[in-house]
Write a structure and sequence with these properties.
Chain lengths: 156, 156
DNA sequence: AGTGATGCGTGCGCCGCGCACGCTTCTGAC
DNA sequence: GTCAGAAGCGTGCGCGGCGCACGCATCACT
């Protein structure tokens, strides 16, 4: 691995390492058990399926289901169905667009805002807690790198 | 955010940043389009559903479906079904355990090893290419941090 | 030898997804 | 003003994956 003739392998070693770690991380974070644990005590409306819609809505403000779809990564109809569940749980309210009576804007209710804030707080606390014993400044540097990686990395 | 009374929020800010980035990363990496692009030209047997089984098998060596299940993160029966598809594609071979005639070990065929190596190489190259303009040493440091994050982080 | 335990594959019901259809509403041209 | 085409939304439908549970084969232990 240290010979110059294998330089392509050395160059790609970082890629292999990141890919490996990301693969494990993906499988871990998609475990239903983790989501159950994090959504403990919340209302019945939010789960690992509906949360991406709720989160995207909180991030971008009131939008239609069609506009939310590419951000969530599924079809427009799926966003509609998930939003209906959130609406039934009282976390999301459908509001007719005054400028276009066809459009139905999805708006977070007060309870919806509270729920997403609570959930984000739990997740952040969970992450922060297990990073407590990192050397000072390491976590911040890692967070910056990770942000840049997601923003302009291979999955942009 | 800078007032002392909100110190818990400041403490959690790193957690929030990491959670946000991970959320985006998750949605990006689970997009089917990316998998289609990466598996371009491969046989029909490997896709975004069957690949985790193939990869886990390559990582840990010959194992039974039940042993692979917790690593993949789904039920034992799902691993069996995915393995059957990989077997039909000639990437995996079922081999009776000589010590236990109940057990069916899943073994990668030569073509299976070649496929997973090729796929890993593509992914690693894809990652490495977009990290080319990072400052020297930054990518390596990030990879180390990421590995530690997955190993002993909040999702261990 | 016999009984409980273990491992594997599969049938079944459930659920989420993408596609396509119908309905309503907007837009632009005549 | 009117009408045809486009745009937006919700929903029915078929497909596919998943978890559970059952049956069969085999092992372990008495």
């Amino acid at each position: 691995m240290r010979h110059a003739r294998y330089s392509w392998c050395v160059d790609n070693e970082v890629g292999h390492e990141i890919a490996e770690a990301l693969g494990v991380l993906l499988r871990r974070t998609t475990r239903a058990q983790l989501h159950r644990q994090l959504t403990e005590g919340m209302g019945e409306g939010v789960d690992e399926v509906t949360y991406p819609v709720l989160s995207a809505l909180a991030r971008t403000g009131p939008r239609s289901a069609a506009e939310l779809a590419p951000d969530v990564g599924i079809d427009r109809s799926g966003v509609t169905r998930r939003a209906s569940r959130l609406e039934a749980a009282g976390l999301v309210r459908r509001e007719a667009d005054p400028e276009d009576r066809r459009a139905q804007l999805l708006v977070l209710t007060e309870q919806g805002r509270h729920t997403v804030a609570e959930l984000r707080g739990r997740l952040a606390a969970h992450i922060t807690a297990s990073l407590a014993d990192w050397p000072p400044g390491e976590a911040e540097a890692f967070a910056r790198r990770l942000r840049r990686f997601t923003a302009e990395g291979p999955f942009a």
